[in-house]
Structures are given as C-alpha cells and as structure tokens.
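Researcher: Next sequence.
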Amino acid sequence: MAFDAALIVSLPPGEVEIYRNEIMRWRPGIILTPALIEGVFRERAKTILGPAFVGYADENIFRPVYPSGARLLTAADKKAFGVLRNACLAKEWDHGGSTFRPNHMVGVLRDQQLVTVASYKLWGEHIAHISIITHPSFRGRGHATTAVSELTRIVLERKLVPQYRTLKANVPSMTVAKKLRFLQYATSMLARFREASRSTTRVAGN
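Model: Next structure:
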C-alpha cells in the first residue's frame, strides 16, 4: 500500500526475510503496478489485484446526491436481495456483493425491483468498508452513486468512517468515488499467494 512517498508491505509470517532485500530496493514514491509485484514474487503470486483506489470521506468533503428510491433494507427485502444476487455473475458478486445484513445496506428500487445494493462491513471499531453491486440490466444509470451516497450519509450519521475501495481500472466505480468526493488516501496492490513450496519453507527457516 502506497501513501504518497511512503510504502507499507505486508507479508505472511516467516516470509519477510525471503523478500526483504528486493523490496528494500523499491524507491520512495514508487508507482505500484502488477509488473512490479510480479518482478518480486514471480510464480509465488497466484493472482494480483490492483492498483486500487483507497478513499475516505467526512462531513466536510462528502458531496451527497439526492436519493431517489434509495432506503435502508429490512428483513422483508431478503427475497428481492436473492433475486438481485442471482442476476449477477459470481465474480461480480465476489467483488461488490455481500451477505444479507438488514440495517447495514441501502437498496435502490425501480418499480418495486431491487436493482442496486450498497452495504458496509465494519473494520475494527470505526471503519465502514463500503461495497456496491448493481443489476446488469440497470447499470450506467446512476443507481450506484445514489445507493453509495445514501449509505455514506447513514454511516457518517452513525459516527463511522466511510471507506471506498475500487480498482482504478473500474471506471464506473471510480466515477462514484469522484462524484461523492471520496478523497484518495492510498493506492493498494494485492497479491494472492500460492501455497508455499517446501523450498520456500526451508529458505524461511534459514
């Protein structure tokens, strides 16, 4: 994760020393790219996600939009939530969907159909990590912005800190962040590792 010129790298226990020398050669202000990650972790990295925008908002910088058909979901919305989930690809749901949690998610309805859901998951005691998903047939109409706006308003009202993360390559999601004035705090890259080989384990023990 890069914070302007500062960089933080988190690794599994026992693997810090394996990659320390290569990572220490990275210069301050380095731009995080998949090629940079591949150059260090090579075949150890199974998948690489990023670069990703990490942004926050507070009452002073947040610019809400007027919600239209957006409201907190209740237990009565569970069936409609399931219909929306079934309409989305599994990969899409992994990126922006969530489990059904009434009172922690905002939905946008059109003709009584749930078309967008913005939800948050509490990280620690204060960070409200926001997720957003929209029905494939209703994308590009501003529903995501409406849902995230209303959810952010509620999160701030609950004295929590709204966090918005998305891949920088995801133009529609980045548009939501910009419209609502989420301020970029950092850029992140995620490398999912393959299971450590025996040779890697031996190096870690030396």
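Model: Helices lie at 16-24, 34-41, 78-87, 90-96, 143-157, 171-179, 198-205. Residues 35 and 81 are 38 Å apart (CA to CA).
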